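Kindly inspect both lines:
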Amino acid sequence: MSKVVIAFLLGIIGLFIGFEVGEGAGIAVGFVTLGVYCFVCQFLLSRKNANAYRKDWPVMLALDAAWLCILCVMFLKEHQNLMDSQGPAILLATCGATYLGAVVASLTAKRMLPRP
């Protein structure tokens, strides 16, 4: 199975994690948990790629696709104050943490490369 399909399925699982933790422990804890989940997933998907933050864009978008769709629906259907309060947190927890996971994976892979 390709990394893009795996990333999309992990993103769907992330929906349930974000909503369940957010409902039970509070919205801030839900976003932090979602960010950690996205970071770990992207790090594991890109861990051996020294240029992950430049070349793994399809994987990153697939991981965040479900949340980006929810964000678009929120933008079209919800009240503006809800979008203003939760929209940036969703973007930071998903896209920001995913990109950070790719950067850390890239740095780790560069350290593992043999030196000439």
Helices lie at 3-25, 27-46, 52-55, 57-77, 80-112. Residues 3-110 form one domain. The chain has one domain: 3-110. Residues 80-112 form the longest helix (33 residues).
